[in-house]
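re: ur question from earlier - yeah i can do the single chain one, its not a big deal. heres the input i used so u can compare w yours
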Amino acid sequence: MLIRFRARILWMAALAAGIVAAQPQAQEVWTFDKLDRIGGHPTTILGHPRIVDTPLGKAVEFNGVDDALFIDVHPLAGAETYTWEAIFRPDGGEREQRWFHLQEQDPKTGADTETRMLFEIRAVEGGWYLDSFNLSGPAQKALMNRTSLHPIGAWYHVASVYDGHEFRNYVNGMQEGSAQIHFAPQGPGHTAVGVRINKVFYFKGAVRMVPAR
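and the output i got, formated as tokens:
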């Protein structure tokens, strides 16, 4: 299953701004233009994230200290293959930031399992680099290209792609890492935006779009 943006107008605006490099295929998208619901799902709000106007439309801005949104769904649960994308703006802050976390939960107890996938950044030397992480069963991999630094304060399109055999990640359409690996599909769970699911490693910046099932 491939999960991509469906919002052609917004995608073309991002394309014109140099954030993305290709036209998306049709699928669902979460747009961060309100706080109480994302993609039709109710949110739990932590701290005081705020709605801001940007060149791409409204986005949710996080302060890097105590702001986050929690959503009671794992949008890639059951996916054997996927393309997980986002448009976001990192604004500096602490070195390690887990800014988008999809977390599996035990269906019997509701407790978090070890299975998860994340978008992370490392803010270093006045810039940042991408960390895409997936842990599913015995398989886990973090894709990080520490030499590929990007300026703080600009908008970026990032993607993690798994085709059933290879795990890859991209920034603005340029591949930054890859690994041959097998990931089992993840089960249902929940999502944290702006922080890791256990409320550590807060994100400083803004999120405009991410995909959902």
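The chain is about 5% helix and 50% strand. not sure if urs matches, ping me
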